[in-house]
């Protein structure tokens, strides 16, 4: 089984780094999972966000998404991918490495 890299994205400032890190890790055969929370959910509105679709499993904090006035569909995410912080806790436990941006 491939090593798993968990990435917590809590800032809306690093979309290019998130894309680069995710791409590099998947090219090395790593399993990557992203969790967006706080202002990080704003990256779902960035045109670059679509570059992450299919490269990693993605979930986001539903509370943060709604609190920041966002609504509607997000590329690459389904209804069940709008989660709670419990999903983030699971990600920490399941990951071999965990990065916070």
Describe this structure in words.
It is a single chain. With 101 residues, the chain is of the alpha/beta class. The protein has a single domain (4-100), classed as Hypothetical Protein Ychn, Chain: A. 29% of the residues lie in helices and 23% in strands. A five-stranded parallel β-sheet has the order 4-3-2-1-5, sandwiched between helices.
How is this fold's topology laid out?
Blueprint: E1 4-9, H1 15-27, E2 31-36, E3 57-61, H2 62-67, E4 82-83, H3 85-94, E5 97-100
Parallel strand pairs: 1-2, 1-5, 2-3, 3-4
Which key phrases capture this entry?
single chain, 101 residues, alpha/beta, Hypothetical Protein Ychn, Chain: A, 5 strands, 23% strand
* CATH classification, class level: Alpha Beta
* CATH homologous superfamily caption: DsrEFH-like
What is the chain-wise order of helices and strands?
EHEEHEHE
User: How many helices does DSSP assign?
Assistant: 3
* CATH topology description: Hypothetical Protein Ychn, Chain: A
**Secondary structure category:** alpha/beta
Instruction: Give the N-to-C terminal Cα separation.
Output: 25 Å
Biggest sheet: strands, sense, closure?
Answer: 5 strands, parallel
- The low-pLDDT segments are none
Shape: globular
The total tally of domains equals 1
Q: From the coordinates shown, what is the CATH architecture?
A: 3-Layer(aba) Sandwich
* Spatial order of the strands forming the largest sheet: 4-3-2-1-5
Strand fraction equals 15-25%
CA radius of gyration is 12 Å
Report the count of strand segments: 5
Helix proportion range? 25-40%
Q: For the residues shown, what is the average pLDDT?
A: 96
